[in-house]
Design goal:
The chain is of the alpha+beta class. The protein has six helices and 14 strands. The strands form five sheets. A four-stranded antiparallel sheet has the order 1-2-14-11. It is found in: Cytoplasm.
Length: about 260
């Protein structure tokens, strides 16, 4: 298996994988989305809420606020099901406090964490609007969770793969350039006076070029065992960390299967 990194930012990673099967690459995708742990607000203790927003709605909005945490801190935090406490404690949770008086808008930056290792990813997410003399006071408790339990714990905002496109021209091509004009993504060009592939990885295999060619001189297919994989996150988890953790989880699953089959 070969991996070639094409693009990497704090919230997005694109890479090409060669020499794998569809079941394998799909298993990685599903684990990235559903089994990699992420921190999100789970409990909200509402002490005062004079806003026109119901307590339950405000709590729901708090749960969807992306939280970023120091990787070392996350490693030391227990999953709720692994902790001996009844609901939450310092070993499996992080607390935020919020106290604000109107008029004005309460933003995610108003959530004050008990530790500098955890904070909202984006400080300007509006949570609730307070009128004159309105006041809100609460405690929000964040815990680790996985996407299969709730969308707020899903570490990826987008996680997908596609076959690596392959475009070829046959001898019937009369260089009419109709295929170039038909391509909606700028994959084809005519820099040499004849159609050529400029950016094959941007091809969505929509086959607009194939339909535009009366002679059937262009063939759009894919390379077997080669995929373009894209991971996007909301900034709470680095996309590379999501991939590495997903690979570790898949490896552990495979080892458990092997141990079971060997009668261990």
């Amino acid at each position: 298996m070969d991996i070639a990194l094409k693009e990497k930012t704090d919230t997005e990673m694109v890479f090409v994988v060669t020499g794998v099967t569809v079941p394998f690459i799909n298993a990685i995708r599903r684990i990235c989305m559903m089994e990699v742990p992420k921190l999100a607000i789970e409990y909200v203790n509402m002490y005062r809420n004079d806003a026109r927003m119901f307590d339950e709605v405000l709590a729901h909005r708090l749960g969807l606020v992306p939280l970023k945490a120091d990787p070392e801190f996350i490693e030391g935090l227990k999953m709720p099901e692994e902790c001996d406490c009844e609901e939450y404690c310092s070993e499996c949770s992080v607390s935020f406090t919020l106290k604000k008086k109107g008029p004005g808008v309460v933003y995610s930056r108003d959530l004050l964490s008990e530790t500098p290792a955890v904070e909202p990813v984006y400080p300007d997410i509006p949570l609730v609007k307070l009128g004159d003399e309105d006041e809100v006071e609460l405690e929000a408790v964040a815990q680790l969770g996985v996407g299969r339990d709730h969308a707020k714990w899903e570490p990826t905002t987008a996680c997908a793969y596609k076959y690596y496109p392959m475009i070829t021209f046959t001898e019937e091509c009369d260089e009419c350039l109709e295929c170039v004009d038909a391509c909606p993504r700028g994959v084809l060009g005519d820099e040499s006076g004849k159609p050529e592939v400029l950016d094959v990885e941007n091809c969505s295999m929509c086959k607009s070029c194939v339909r535009a060619c009366d002679k059937g001189a262009i063939i759009v297919g894919y390379e077997e065992g080669k995929f373009i994989f894209r991971i996007e996150t909301d900034g709470s988890v680095d996309p590379q960390d999501v991939l590495l953790k997903a690979c570790d989880i898949l490896r552990d699953k495979a080892e458990r299967v092997i141990t079971f089959c060997e009668g261990g």
